[in-house]
Every structure is written in C-alpha cells, then in structure tokens.
Amino acid sequence: MTQIIDGKAIAAQIKEELKEKVARLKEQGTEVTLAVIQVGADPASSVYVRNKKNACAYIGIRSLAYELPEETTEEELLALIRELNGREDVNGILVQLPLPGQICEERVLDAICPGKDVDGFHPQNVGALCIGRPGFVSCTPAGVIQLLKRSGVEIAGKECVVVGRSNIVGKPMALLLLRENGTVTVTHSRTRDLKEVTARADILVAALGKPRFITADYVKDGAVVIDVGIHRNEDGKLCGDVDYESVAPKCSAITPVPGGVGPMTVAMLMYNCVESAALQQNGKVS
Ligand code: NDP
Q1: Tens of pLDDT along 46-102?
Q2: In this structure, what CATH number is given to the domain that contains residue 228?
Q3: Is residue 141 lining ligand 1, measured as CB closer than 6 Å?
C-alpha cells in the first residue's frame, strides 16, 4: 500500500505547535512580527501574500503589510528594508518575488539583515547551510525534510536524488538531505540519462518545473517520491512535476499535488519567523 504523505495535515500540526510557542513568547513580552512587502499587484503574488497573512493571523503572529506601487524605485525599497532591519519589533522581513524589472532582486535580498531573512535567501544563510552552521533555511526544502521526518521516512544512508538545482529549491534541498546523512545526487537539465539516475533513488525529489514529467519509468519500486512542482493544467486543475497516477502505485510513499509540499512552504515560513523572534529575544541575533 502506498502511503500518501498528507502535507496539509503535517502543516496544520506545525502551525498548532507554533501557536503555542507564539503565545509563550507573548507572555514573555515578545510579539512575533513579520513584515511582508509586495511591490505591484501581480495576481499570483497577491494570493501568496494573502496566504501568508492568513497563516500569521491564525498562529497569532503580527503581520505588517507594505503594499508598494509598481513604479517603486530600488532605492525606495532598500530604504524601507533598512528601516525594518533597524526596528527591534520586527522579527522577519519577507519581500514577495518577483519584483518589477527596475528593481534588482539580488540587491534587495542581500539588503535584508540575515537574522531577519525568514525566507533563507540571503547568501550568509545559504553559506551557513553549506557549512553546517545555524541559519534560516529556504522554506520549501525545509518543509520537505519535515514531511519526510514526520512521515517516518528515514533519510540517513539512503540514495537521495534531487531533480533541479535552483537556488530556492534544488540546491538547499540537496544540502539538507546531505545534512540528514543521505547519499545525495543532484540532477539538472544537462544530466545525461536522467532516468538511469532517478531510478537509483530511494528518495526522489522532483523540482524541475515540468508538469507530470516524472513518469513510472523514472522511479524505482518502493521509492519515496516528493513532488515539489506546482502547475495548473488547461482545465484549471493543479498538478505537479510527477505523473501521480502512474508513479503512485510503484512507490512506498508519495506527496500529492495539491496537499503535499505546497502547504509546508507557508508553515515553514511561520516556523522561521517564530525561530527568529525566539533568537532575538535571547539576544543571539541582532
Ligand atoms: P527553476 O525553474 O528555477 O529550476 C528548475 C530546475 O530544474 C533547474 O535546475 C533546471 O536545470 C532543472 N530542469 C529543468 N528541466 C529539466 C529536465 N528536463 N531534466 C532535469 N532537470 C531539469 O524552478 P524552481 O526550483 O523555482 O521550482 C521548481 C518547481 O517547484 C516549479 O514547478 C515551481 O512552481 C515549484 N515550486 C513549488 C513551491 C511550493 O511551495 N510547493 C515553491 C517553489 C517552487 P538547469 O539548472 O540546468 O536549468
């Protein structure tokens, strides 16, 4: 029987745990606060921002919304980030991507103080992950690790194959699996004979951004398959990078889309925020 890994239930469990931590921090005088910045009104970004604000409200995190006009200059955005970096009552700063063309995303992300970089995109946090130091970890791959652990999937010693090497998913995913003592292979668009590599995986993470690309012939019998992809097909239905119907019967466990990795991303953002507040309260991070 294939285990369907229920990301919605696991994300809900994490949010309940966070609710308690937030209440405890409040009793100790810290109101966990996340600043959410959106530039322009891209409809997809507005949905993501709304989800994040709703999650904050549910857990008891105060969210400060900065909705800036499309024509905002880079300097104006950087000035806001500098102000938020300096505010003691702000624990996390999130800039919703993508940004309009006149603003350099890299300069903006680099400007966020690493101790408030709850998205885990700052080079200092990425570097910390690389060398095994504490720091914030990109939310989607951190969510995948939680899904595996909380579903009882052992990572240590396993053949782990990650399809995709982006800075926000594939690379941090590989580093996290390595930190958990997996034997990790990273594949990408230039990988020769992808099927031969993925078919070795005990744990296969698909994050390549191609709808239903991973079919049954890419997967070993009994593998655990994690589908990071999110796509909307012609009839408006969501699907992932994995061809769920053909792959699920072969696996020991699999994440569905929707209801797998997706809900974990916001839950882990909330987790990072609470962590940031706790560290700032203890004076470990400025
Ligand atoms: P990117 O487009 O940034 O990266 C895709 C990666 O996949 C690249 O490294 C690319 O290789 C590799 N790739 C593309 N085609 C192939 C192929 N045919 N064979 C092997 N590798 C290939 O995507 P992201 O990492 O940002 O996102 C991946 C997916 O995850 C998307 O569907 C996205 O929507 C989804 N996503 C979901 C989130 C969630 O919350 N569930 C959050 C973030 C993303 P190369 O480097 O050589 O170009």
Answers
A1: 999 999 999 999 999 999 999 999 999 999 999 999 999 999 999 999 999 999 999
A2: 3.40.50.720
A3: no
Quick check: is 96 catalytic? yes
Kindly report, residue by residue over 105-125, the tens digit of the pLDDT: 999 999 999 999 999 999 999
Q: How confident is the model at residue 284 (pLDDT cuts 50, 70, 90)?
A: low
Question: Does 277 map to a domain?
Answer: no
Same domain for 230 and 176: yes
Nearest Cα to 62, choosing from 81, 43, 89? Answer: 89
- Distance (Å, whole) CA 102 – CA 201: 42
Looking at the structure, do residues 202 and 250 belong to the same domain, yes or no? yes
Same domain? For 174 and 74 the reply is: no
Question: Are 98 and 144 within one domain?
Answer: no
Mutation choice for ligand 1 from 52, 96, 188, CB with most ligand atoms inside 8 A: 188
Ligand 1 pocket, 205 CB below 6 A?
A: no
Q: Which two tokens stand for residue 104?
A: 């350099």
Evaluate whether 45 touches 254 at the Cβ level (below 8 Å): no
Are residue 54 and residue 166 in the same domain, yes or no?
no
Task: Tell which phi-psi region holds residue 262, choosing left (phi > 0), alpha (psi between -120 and 50) or beta.
Answer: alpha
Q: Which domain holds residue 39?
A: 29-115
Ligand 1 midpoint to CA 164 (Å):
5
Catalytic residue among 119, 202, 227, 243: 119
Specify the pLDDT at position 285: 53
Considering the domain boundaries, does residue 168 fall inside one?
Answer: yes
The pTM of the full predicted model, rounded to 2 decimals, is 0.97
Length of the chain: 286
